[in-house]
Structures are given as structure tokens and as C-alpha cells.
Design brief:
heteropentamer, B: 240 residues, alpha/beta, Rossmann fold, 4-stranded antiparallel β-sheet, 9 helices, 38% helix, globular, D: 221 residues, 10 helices, binds adenosine-5'-triphosphate, binds magnesium ion
Chain lengths: 217, 240, 247, 221, 240
């Protein structure tokens, strides 16, 4: 259908870009989720006053464009602190904090969705705070939070397209490089879009399915 | 024995318990009645230490509930409580709901805990529902499971807070029957309820709460037959 | 200092712009090639280390240096005074003249024909700064900066732009490549030649000295002319000296 | 202390230019929201219309908008559409890209909100003699907009943040574009982008505060 | 006059109405009783054309409801209906709830519609709640508002579907009083209800539905006093 000059080498080149996209996403989502859970629990536990500084910092990560976060982190680490971090490290670092900022919100929402009365019932059976947290709150909060978390993970994957700005050649950047050489913008963009879609769509559907299933009981 | 001495409790500026004095003996069944907001639920949650109190003291089997040195998690094992909302743990099967606390709190083995759980569940008539998730059961069944869950900790006292209020009228009977059974077995119980018929039949004494004060306490025949407190008279007139 | 660090580490990391043919581009295996790439390789060879090419879009060249991601820039960087406040520039290693490139079907006979048209160039380049100034001066038409040189030509061939200004080398290479159908060189742009320099951190005098000498040696040994023939074509490479002043 | 001398004064001298950029950013965000809401309502109606074709159009739109990067969508609006001979200026490309994205996400929010409105509400309206359209317009839609108000606020915030992607299609008048252009001139990257970050943060706070006020004024039930 | 002739109605394979014949005259108050799922609600929604039917016909004032040519939106203005769920429009004030349909459907001016609305709201005892949002009101008040909302369209007929079933027992009285008032004013009404006392006092005739069939219809004295149908006898025994 398409008359294209695209070679196998070019496809491999694209695949490498896709691989970078996936690796950056996996690392950031894994670390960001761990941090986000910690932040979320801390925020819920210490109350709004003591959590205010943390809340503010997380809010900043949600209120400034990711591109600017990347540029600033890059400039700050390199220019100001004179740390020689690779672009890949900066990308993962910023995306981790970005993930954590959203994840903390999701975790807090999940915990708040567990009815106080259920937690009281657990405590009156003699369960300690920790036992209540691990045996009752976590499993129930996970149900509420998982669909949004899937959405977040997919969001991070899509937003990872912006790490080109710190010289990480991920999928979209690879596509642009090929467009430069081959001048087939539409065809190449379609391939790139299809890749994102094929990863994101099934997982998004899974999230929707879980949400529907778990909201029934 | 539960001894409640001059207990005061406020939420912010709202005084909900205004000096309650009450003693419940071993084996006694005490029913608490009263209008909405009169402080009945609050009293129960103070007895097992879920809420702090602002004055007075509550002593359960010689242990002062709100003393700093008291291990509340330990004390609560002695005092089972069942609430109006069923509070089933929806992510666990019926059997797991009941075995959770014995395993985590009492450190029972799985087999031991299940033995206890099956016994209590059979007792409340749910012996055939072990693997079912609570959301698949009727409210009455969930409430009976909550009772079995509390009983599995072998408590010395059971507190019931309007356990039939959230139930479909059709299902009230089965839960009240379970309470009757417990009473007949000699369990020490405090039941907050709106079911006057039940209160009359089962209780040793009935207490009437009004605006944070225990306005009257007497054996059921006396309290229902010859109420002295004018508020109680009004209350009984409205509910009959 | 940096010079020692590079020699010790065994690699020289160069910022190169890879959508700027013939100075920087990719072959059909997507490997970097071009004048700047060779120039970096020569520099590495002189230092006795291996070269590593780091691709940077135009606006990211200097941030990449500042962030410590590269050691020097071999990236056709104009030596403006504004930039010299931030980074250290070597003597010029190349000089561009700029050409006006237009799309077929846009009426234009000389550079002044751009007046009132939609024009664009690569953000942050010498010619972009000049062109934006012109558009402001004319008070009509529109200027659009794109992030990469490739996007500029893509936009031009797609008809998003009527004309652009780019270096003669880039213009000729792109017109010749046939990648962008329907574009033509119209005229030279009346600018002072765009001297471009190697750059590194401002305070690295040792390295800057070395770079200056290296540029000098490239010309002296004839390598400059050789690279010019290889990448740009027959003819004389631009004179890198300015009459009437030192440096 | 850092071995880097901050030159805030120079960067701050550019503040007026950046504030002009912030206005453009706000303008694009607001326009893309207004058009996005209208389109999202349309898409919602399409998806409920029962028509196969309209439903397929709406579903494709929503899924593509939600499952590809916004940067991709904006790039597509500029360079992709141009392959079909549709030439959009950077401003319009950015607007189209963000609006496309907004409409997709909002349509999904609206669908969720609709589920929360009992069918009996429509029935009640119909039995008062309203046509299906009247019942939707006067009874269902206002309730839907209220439930979807918080997600709409979030989408508005994202729209503001998404304007930063305009640089890839040659946008240079929005806040990020202005900052990037100044950066190319002076290379005071850290100072310039730090100021831009503060402006973005303030814009977002203003939006969130305004949304709270609007919600308070509008939804008094 | 509402004429129902041999009406059949199925949901999928489930036949819910199995040939209903019934005529309601102008000014008559008909009460419909029967067990859950017997098809009472379905009949009402068929009468105002909210549900299509599978056989037979329903004619209201000479207009066949399910004929293709019938303008249902117009017909429904004639037939007010109030459901078990209050269906207040929560985003509108009480006054706006009632004026919405007159303005949008009948094209009244705002002033005109408000005049009508205030009259009807005062009629049902909500004259002092005009600017209040429904969520701030009790269920009984919401239900009375729903009645006023239907009346504001000046319907010739009113259908009531268990309008008191979702109400707190305390609030049932006020809504039934409103229905009594309407009946005494000569409104033609079909009331589905479980309130036997109300059915006995207010109705001209009472119809008993059982499994999609109208098993018996008679004046209340006869139907309650000497039920003939064995299912009706069972039903009455269970509800008394
Ligand atoms: N956690 C709380 N914070 C603030 N006020 C509370 C809290 N719990 C209860 N109250 C208030 O304390 C008062 C007594 O409440 P309580 O639940 O003990 O009443 P009750 O007698 O159980 O009433 P009901 O029959 O409605 O359950 C009420 O006015 C209630 O609003
Ligand atoms: N929209 C529908 N789709 C499928 N089945 C329906 C629908 N509406 C009602 N039914 C079924 O039709 C039967 C009759 O329902 P209907 O609501 O008319 O009974 P009812 O006599 O009003 O009972 P109740 O006293 O419980 O309101 C029931 O079995 C019900 O499940
Ligand atoms: Mg209570
Ligand atoms: Mg019904």
C-alpha cells in the first residue's frame, strides 16, 4: 500500500526507540509508584498540616509542564550542581517524581475510599494499625486505585515522548530522525502512533474492565 | 464486669455523654434504648476504647480502658462489637473474614483458626457459606457473619449497636434469633436497639438514654410497664 | 582541567546537529556522518581518544554542554557575543553564507521577495535571529521558528512556509537530495558571513587554547579544504580570517 | 556555592515578554477547552445515538486521543495533516492538537458522569412531555456537567501544560515558545525556565481557584 | 377516559402483561394492588407510552397511545405520572423543577409558569420552599413536589406508582393526604399502592394484579370484604 524507502535497519532503529520508551516508562513507573505509595500514606497519616510541604512539592510536579521539569532538572543537575548525569538518568529521575506526584494522589484517594466503619470493625477485633493497613486497607484501596494507576502508567508512557529534550532518543524522536532522512512524515508518524496505541489501548481497556468489575461489589 | 463511672464525652463543643454511671455484671443482658443522637453508639465505642473520653473512667474486668498503660489491642479481644453497618471485609471470603483476627491477633495457626471459625459460623447458621464472598449474601447473613467474626475471638463481652437497623424487615428476625441464642447461652451483652419487643423479652435490664444522660434504668417489665421519666413515656408512646 | 579529563577518560563527546546536511546528517544505517562529524573525529584523533557523537537539536546544543552531557560542541554554532557570555568560543572553524530558499509557485526573485510572506528558520540559529529581525522590521508577514532544520524544510516542502533562509551548504544539499520536492534557491541573503566556532565551557582556557590551535592546524594541513571537498563540493572553502582586526 | 553564577536580573528583564506568552498560553487553553467541551458533548451524543457510523467515529476519536501522546497529536496536526494538503499555522496546529486531546478525554469523563445519572431522571422528563433532546438538554446535561466538573478542571490544567508542546510545530508566541526563544538567544536556561515554571504554577493555581469559585456559585445544590 | 383492551407486554421472553382489559372513567379513582413483579408499574408506563406494547391497544380520550401517528410528547401532557423514586431534578430549585416543563414543553412565559407552579406548590403544601434545592428536603416533600410538577402541566389523568414506598414511615401520611385531596377534587387517578387502608378509603374500584393478569376488580368494600380470587385471599392475608 505504501511505497516506502524504509529498510529493515530503519525498522530496527525504530524498535530501539520503542525499547527506550518502554524501559524509561518501566523504571519511572516502578520507582514512582513506590515513592508515591510512601508519600500517599505519609500524607494521609500525618494530617494536612504536617503534610503541607510535601503536598506543595508534589503539587508543583503536577502544575509545571513536564518539558520544563526536564529542562530545569537538566540545567540544575549539570550547570548548577555540576553532576554529570546521563540524559537517561535525568529522564528517569524526573519521570519518577512526576509519577510519584500523581500516584500519591491516587493512593490517598484509595485509602479514603475504605469506609471508616470497616476500619473501626477491624480495630475492634484487636488488629493493630499495621495489621489493619496491610490486611484491610491495602487490598481494598488497591481495588479503587488500580484503574487510575493503570491510567497513570499509560500517561507516563505517553509523556515519555518528551524526554527527547534531554537527548534521549525514544520512539517519537527516532521517528523524527527517520522523517528527516526519508521524508515520509505521514507514514512514519502512523507507525509511531500505532505503536503507542497498541500498547496503551489494551491496557486502558483492562483498566476500564477492572473498574467496572470492582465497582459492582 | 464492665464498670462505667461518671463518663463524659464531647465531640468538639458538643457534649454527647454527660456523666454516665452504669455497671454491667457477668452474664447480664443490658438493652439500651433512646432517641437518635442520644449518645448510645458513642458509649459503646468508648467502652472498647475506639473513642477517647473526656472525664470519668471505664473499667473492664479490672482494667481501666483509657489508662495510658492499657494495651487496647489486647483489651479489644475481650470485647466483641458489632455495628449497624455490617462491615464485612468485602475482599475476603466468609471463612477468611472470621479467621483473620484469630490468626493475626491471637497468632492461631490456619487450621486452628478455621476450626474456631467453622464452629462459630455453624453456630450462627452460616456453616454452608464458608467460601462465599460477603457481597453475595443478604444483609442478615452478613450481619450474622459479623457476629461470628466477633465471637471467634472468644470475647467475654459482646456489644451490639443497632445490628438490625440497616436490615430489610424480612431479615431482622434471623439476626434477633442469633442474639437471643447468645443471651440464652449466658453471654454478657449490651444491645443498643430499636426493637422494643426484643428488648422486653431478652433483657435483664433496659436503660433509656436521652440527650447524653441515662434517664432511666430498670428491668423491662418495670421500665415498659411503668415508665417514670416523662421523656421515656413520650418515647414509648411514639414507638408503640 | 577539562583537557586532562578528556584525555584521561579516553572519549571526546561532541555535540553535533544531525539534521543539518552536509554538516551533520545520518547515512542509511542511521549512523552520523558529515563535515562536523569528521571534524569531531579529527579532534578526537588529535587528542588520542575516541569520539562520541551526541545528537543535539539546535536549541539544545549549549544546554547539553552546560549539563555536562558533552565536552565540546562541533555544531555549526555562530559565535555571537550574547552566547559568549555563557560559553567559551574558539576561533571560527567554518563560515557560512546564507541563501534564501523558496517553494515553487511562490513568486520571489530576490531576498526582498520574502517581505509579507510566511517564513521560517531553525530556532536559535544565526539566520533565524536575522530573519525574525527582518520580519519585525517589515512589519508584515510571519516568522516561524522550528526546533530542527529538518522540520523547517519539511514545512517548506509541505507548503506551511513560503520561504526560508539557511546556509548555502544546507540549501544546496537539500535541493540536490531530492528529498524535498518543489523547492529552489532564490538568492543569497545579505548577511555578514556566519562565522561558526567550536565551543566548550567558558572557563576552560586550556581546552579553548587547544581548540584554537586545532582549527589552525586543520587549515594549515589542508584537512579543512579536504573536508570541504568531501562534504560541500568543488571550490574554495570560506576564508576564516577577517581583515583589519586580530583574532 | 554552586560554581554557577545565576543572572536573574537579565532573565527577569524578559519577564514582560514571558507574560505576553502566558496570555497566549491561556488563550489557547481556554479556546481548546470551550471547543473541546462542545465536541465532547457531541461525541457523547454520537456514542449514545445508536448509529453505527457515528458511534465508530466517536469511539475512534476518543481512543486515539487517549492512547497516543499529546505531542504526537500536535505533531500530526501540523505535519501529518499537511501531507493531505491541509496547512495549519503553528497556533492553529497547537489549538487543534490540544482540542482533539481535550475532546477525547472529556467525552470519556462525560460518559462516566452519565452513568451516575439514573435513567429514571430521563423518564421523569419524558413523562412530563419533553422530547428526548429536551430531556437531555435540560435534565441530564446540567447534572452531567456538575459531576464532570472536577475532571474538567483537571483537563483545563493539562491543556495549559500541553501548550508547552507547541514549540515542536514552530510555535513561538506562547509561554514555553517565548522562553525557548529567549533561551536560544542567551542560553540562560536555568533562570529562564525557572521563571517560566513559576508562571505556569501560578496559572494553574489561578485556574484551580477559579474553578472552585465557579463550582461554588454554580452548584448550590 | 382510559380504555385498555387486551394489552400484552413482554420484556424479551418474559411476558409481564398477559392481556389486560380495563376502563377508567373520568373522575374515577382506581387503585391497583398486587405482589412484586405482577406488572403494575409496567401497565402505568405503557399507558403514557413510555414503554411500547406487544398486543392490544390503549386509548386515552379517543387517541390510541401506541399508534404511529400519535404525538407522544403531546399525549403525555395529558397524563401526569409520579414514580416511587422521587426523581426530583437535583440541579434545579423546587420552583424551577415545577416550571421547567410548562416553559419548555407548553411554551409558557416565565411569569406564567411561575404563577401556575406557585399555585400547585401551595396546593401540596410547599408554598414556602420555592427557592430550596430538592436535596435539602425530606423524601415526603420531594414526592409532593413531584406531584406538583406533574399537576403543573394540567393533566387530565394522574398515575401514581407506589409513591409512598420509598418514604420513611413518618412521611407516608403527608403524601397520602395530598392524594386524598386530589381524589376529592375529582381528578381521574390510577394509584398503584401497598397502602391497603388508603386503597379502601379513597378508591372507587380496586384492581388486583397477579402475574401479569388482572385477577379481580371490584369496589373496595367488595374486594376487601369478600375476595373471590384465591391468590387475592392469600395476598390480603399476608398484608394484614
Ligand atoms: N465522630 C463524631 N464527630 C462529631 N460528632 C459525632 C461523632 N460521632 C457522633 N457524633 C455526634 O454525637 C451525638 C451522639 O451520637 P451517637 O451516634 O452516639 O447517637 P446514637 O444515640 O447512637 O444515635 P442513633 O440512634 O442515631 O445511632 C450525635 O449528635 C452525633 O452527631
Ligand atoms: N425494563 C425492563 N426490562 C426487563 N424486565 C423488566 C423491565 N421492567 C420490568 N421488568 C420485569 O417485569 C416484571 C414486572 O415488573 P413491574 O415493575 O411492572 O412489577 P410491579 O408489579 O410494579 O412490582 P413492584 O411492586 O416490585 O414494583 C418484573 O419481573 C420485572 O423484573
Ligand atoms: Mg447509633
Ligand atoms: Mg413497581
Amino acid at each position: 500500500m505504501f511505497d516506502t524507502a524504509l529498510t529493515t535497519a530503519d525498522l530496527l532503529f525504530l524498535a530501539r526507540g520503542a525499547g527506550i520508551t518502554i524501559i524509561v516508562t518501566l523504571i519511572s513507573v516502578a520507582l514512582g509508584t513506590a515513592l508515591g505509595i510512601a508519600f500517599g500514606v505519609i500524607r494521609y497519616q500525618v494530617g494536612p498540616w504536617w503534610a503541607a510541604p510535601l503536598t506543595f512539592v508534589l503539587d508543583v510536579f503536577r502544575s509545571v509542564p513536564l518539558l520544563i521539569q526536564l529542562v530545569l532538572a537538566n540545567a540544575f543537575m549539570g550547570v548548577v550542581l555540576k553532576l554529570k548525569l546521563s540524559g537517561f538518568t535525568i529522564a528517569c529521575g524526573v519521570l519518577t517524581m512526576y509519577t510519584a506526584a500523581y500516584c500519591a494522589e491516587i493512593v490517598r484517594g484509595g485509602i479514603e475510599a475504605v469506609p471508616m466503619t470497616t476500619r473501626r470493625a477491624a480495630r475492634s477485633l484487636g488488629l493493630t494499625w499495621r495489621q489493619d493497613m496491610t490486611n484491610i486497607v491495602m487490598p481494598l484501596a488497591t481495588r479503587v486505585a488500580l484503574p487510575s494507576w493503570i491510567g497513570l502508567a499509560l500517561g507516563v508512557m505517553k509523556d515519555s515522548a518528551l524526554v527527547y529534550i534531554v537527548q534521549v532518543t525514544e520512539l517519537l524522536k527516532s521517528t523524527q530522525i527517520l522523517i528527516t532522512r526519508l521524508q515520509e512524515p505521514l507514514f512514519l508518524l502512523m507507525i509511531c502512533g500505532a505503536f503507542y496505541f497498541l500498547i496503551s489501548f489494551p491496557l486502558a481497556r483492562l483498566g476500564g474492565y477492572l473498574e467496572r468489575r470492582w465497582s459492582n461489589d | 464486669m464492665i464498670e462505667i463511672e461518671n463518663v463524659h464525652k464531647s465531640f468538639g463543643s458538643l457534649e454527647v455523654l454527660k456523666g454516665i454511671d452504669l455497671t454491667v455484671d457477668k452474664g447480664e443482658v443490658l438493652t439500651v434504648i433512646g432517641g437518635s443522637g442520644s449518645g448510645k453508639s458513642t458509649l459503646l465505642t468508648c467502652i472498647n476504647g475506639l473513642e477517647p473520653i473526656n472525664g470519668g473512667r471505664i473499667v473492664v474486668d479490672g482494667i481501666e480502658v483509657h489508662a495510658k498503660s492499657t494495651d487496647l489491642n489486647k483489651l479489644r479481644q475481650k470485647i466483641g462489637i458489632v455495628f449497624q453497618q455490617f462491615n464485612a471485609f468485602p475482599h475476603l471470603t466468609v471463612l477468611e473474614n472470621v479467621t483473620l483476627a484469630p490468626r493475626k491477633v491471637l497468632g492461631m495457626s490456619k487450621a486452628q483458626a478455621e476450626e474456631v471459625a467453622v464452629k462459630q459460623l455453624t453456630h450462627v447458621g452460616l456453616g454452608d457459606k464458608l467460601g462465599v464472598y460477603p457481597t453475595r449474601m443478604s444483609g442478615g447473613q452478613q450481619q450474622r457473619m459479623a457476629i461470628a467474626r466477633a465471637l471467634a475471638m472468644s470475647p467475654s463481652y459482646m456489644l451490639f449497636d443497632e445490628v438490625t437497623s440497616a436490615l430489610d424487615p424480612m431479615l431482622v428476625g434471623e439476626v434477633l434469633d442469633t442474639l437471643r441464642m447468645l443471651a440464652s447461652e449466658g453471654m454478657t451483652m449490651i444491645c443498643v436497639t430499636h426493637e422494643m419487643k426484643f428488648a422486653r423479652e431478652v433483657s435483664d435490664r433496659v436503660a433509656f438514654f436521652h440527650k447524653g444522660v441515662m434517664a432511666e434504668i430498670a428491668p423491662p417489665a418495670e421500665l415498659f410497664g411503668a415508665p417514670k421519666d416523662p421523656e421515656l413515656q413520650k418515647f414509648l408512646a411514639a414507638t408503640h | 582541567d577539562k583537557l586532562d579529563d578528556i584525555i584521561a577518560s579516553g572519549t571526546l563527546r561532541c555535540a553535533v546537529v544531525l539534521d543539518f546536511p552536509p554538516m551533520g546528517m545520518r547515512d542509511d544505517q542511521n549512523n552520523p556522518i558529515g563535515f562536523d562529524v569528521d571534524y569531531c573525529n579529527d579532534l578526537a584523533a588529535a587528542l588520542g581518544v575516541t569520539a562520541e557523537i551526541v545528537e543535539t537539536p539546535f536549541p539544545e546544543r549549549i544546554p547539553a554542554l552546560m549539563a555536562g552531557r558533552v565536552d565540546v560542541g562541533v555544531a555549526s554554532t555562530s559565535d555571537t557575543l550574547e552566547r559568549a557570555k555563557t560559553v567559551g568560543m574558539s576561533v571560527p572553524y567554518y563560515a557560512f553564507e546564507n541563501a534564501v530558499v523558496a517553494r515553487e509557485g511562490v513568486e520571489m526573485t530576490n531576498w526582498e521577495g520574502m517581505k509579507g510572506k510566511t517564513v521560517g528558520a531553525t530556532a536559535g540559529t544565526y539566520e533565524a535571529i536575522w530573519l525574525e529581525g527582518k520580519v519585525k522590521e517589515w512589519g508584515e508577514g510571519e516568522f516561524r521558528p522550528y526546533q530542527t532544520q529538518a522540520d523547517v524544510f519539511l514545512a517548506l516542502s509541505q507548503g506551511q512556509l513560503d520561504a526560508t533562509v539557511s546556509t548555502v551548504e544546507v540549501a544546496n544539499a537539500n535541493v540536490k537530495s531530492g528529498n524535498f520536492p518543489g523547492i529552489r534557491v532564490v538568492d543569497k541573503a545579505p548577511m555578514v558571513p556566519d562565522y561558526v566556532a567550536l565551543f566548550t565551557l567558558r572557563e576552560e582556557y586550556g581546552l579553548i587554547n587547544y581548540l584554537n590551535l586545532f582549527v589552525n592546524q586543520q587549515v594549515r594541513t589542508g584537512r579543512y579544504a579536504e573536508l570541504y571537498t568531501k562534504w560541500v563540493g568543488e571550490g574554495e572553502p570560506a576564508d576564516l580570517t577577517v581583515n583589519g582586526v586580530y583574532r | 556555592m554552586f560554581g554557577y553564577t545565576f543572572q536573574w536580573k537579565q532573565a527577569l528583564a524578559r519577564l514582560p515578554q514571558m507574560l505576553d506568552g502566558a496570555l497566549v498560553t491561556m488563550q489557547i487553553a481556554i479556546l481548546s477547552m470551550v471547543i473541546g467541551i462542545v465536541l465532547a458533548v457531541l461525541l457523547t451524543v454520537f456514542r449514545r445515538s445508536g448509529s453505527r457510523i457515528l458511534g465508530a467515529i466517536a469511539t475512534t476519536w476518543v481512543e486515539v486521543a487517549r492512547n497516543t501522546p499529546a505531542l504526537f497529536q500536535i505533531y500530526m496536526a501540523h505535519f501529518g495533516l499537511a501531507s493531505f494538503g491541509i496547512h495549519l499555522s503553528p497556533y492553529v496546529s497547537l489549538l487543534v492538537g490540544i482540542t482533539f486531546n481535550n475532546a477525547g478525554y472529556l467525552a470519556e469523563n462525560f460518559r462516566g458522569a452519565l452513568k451516575a445519572i439514573p435513567e429514571t431522571q430521563t423518564r421523569a422528563g419524558r413523562s412530563l412531555g419533553m422530547s428526548p433532546l429536551q430531556a437531555f438538554r435540560y435534565i441530564v446535561m446540567p447534572q452531567m456537567l456538575r459531576i464532570a466538573f472536577l475532571p474538567m478542571t483537571n483537563q483545563m490544567v493539562w491543556a495549559v501544560l500541553m501548550t508547552s508542546l507547541g514549540v515542536t510545530v514552530g510555535m513561538n508566541t506562547d509561554l514555553f515558545g517565548v522562553t525557548q526563544a529567549l533561551n536560544a538567544l542567551t542560553f540562560r536556561t536555568f533562570e529562564l525556565f525557572a521563571i517560566a515554571a513559576v508562571i505556569f504554577y501560578l496559572i494553574v493555581k489561578v485556574i484551580q481557584t477559579a474553578a472552585r469559585l465557579i463550582a461554588w456559585r454554580l452548584f448550590r445544590y
